[in-house]
Amino acid sequence: MAAAPTLFISDLHLSPDRPELVAAFHALLRGPARGAAALYAIGDLFDAWLGDDQLREPLPAAVAAAFAELEASGTLIYLQRGNRDFLLGERFAQASRATLLADAVVHDVQGTPTLITHGDELCTDDVDYQRFRAYWQDPVHRQRLLAMPYVVRRGIATLFRFASRRATAAKSEVIMDVNEAAVADAFRAHRVARMIHGHTHRPARHELVVDGRRCERFVLADWFRAASYLRVDAAGVGAQDFAPD
Q1: What are the structural domain ranges in the chain?
Q2: Which helix (H) or strand (E) holds 225?
Q3: Taking CA atoms, which of 21, 153, 159, 161 is between 20 and 30 Å from 73?
Q4: Cβ proximity of 221 and 239 under 8 Å
């Protein structure tokens, strides 16, 4: 009997404003993810995450419940933070019966050591964003933000999204993509030959040679237009579009 596959998703940006994608998420967990060895959601699961007290809202509570139900069926759940949900915490992970991962981890995926990361740290040419990221990586700054009233955090999140849209519109496509030297450094630092990440919204498989080693980098698709996931099994690695019934 073939081993159960491992699935990866990223950049869903779930929001009440996109009910069709929320529905697709739940269909994925009831369908292709059921029976998988593991499901990795590696960043920007939500369009904005204001802190784990956001679980009081219907959409996040339903997402956590769906994860928990999937985990109870035998599928391991792994979560990583993205740039939109960098405040995701242990309370949400516990409600989801999930393991909250560090920003970059190496896991054995179907027999291959694989670097798993959201991917934003690889976009080193985007200097302004890297300053923003470094600021919010500081636990002191995170705690100060989380100590603010929920309604204040919601207003700040709205400002962040507005500023992000303006900044993105003004930047070149090259700046917002990964830096090839940063990618090579990541392969060296983690001593792997396979990487899976999201963030850039440029789904593809890239081949490269690092210090004489053949490496491959898989970039996950976002869910702005359609639902999809990356499937890893004994036959290889491939992107799968998903259209719920």
Answers
A1: 6-242
A2: none
A3: 21
A4: yes
Nearest to 187 by CA among 231, 217, 218: 217
What is the distance between the alpha carbons of residues 22 and 138, in angstroms, rounded to a whole number?
31
Count of other CB atoms within 10 angstroms of residue 9: 26
CB 108 within 8 A of CB 161: no
**What's phi and psi for 31, nearest 5 deg?**
-110, -100
pTM, entire model: 0.93
What is the rounded distance in angstroms from the CA atom of residue 16 to the CA atom of residue 58?
Answer: 9
pLDDT tens by residue, the chain, 245 residues: 568 999 999 999 999 999 999 999 999 999 999 999 999 999 999 999 999 999 999 999 999 999 999 999 999 999 999 998 999 999 999 999 999 999 999 999 999 999 999 999 999 999 888 998 998 889 899 999 999 999 899 888 787 776 666 656 555 565 679 999 999 999 999 999 999 999 999 999 999 999 999 999 999 999 988 899 999 999 999 999 887 76
Q: Does domain 6-242 have CATH number 3.60.21.10?
A: yes
Neighbour count for residue 68 (Cβ, 10 Å): 16
| Rg, Å, the chain Cα set | 18
Reduced to 3 states, what is the DSSP secondary structure of residue 185? helix
Distance CA 102, CA 130 (A): 17
CB burial of residue 191 (10 Å; 0-12, 13-18, 19+) = exposed
Q: Is the dihedral of CA 176, 177, 178, 180 positive or negative?
A: negative
Alpha carbon distance 193, 115 (integer Å): 8
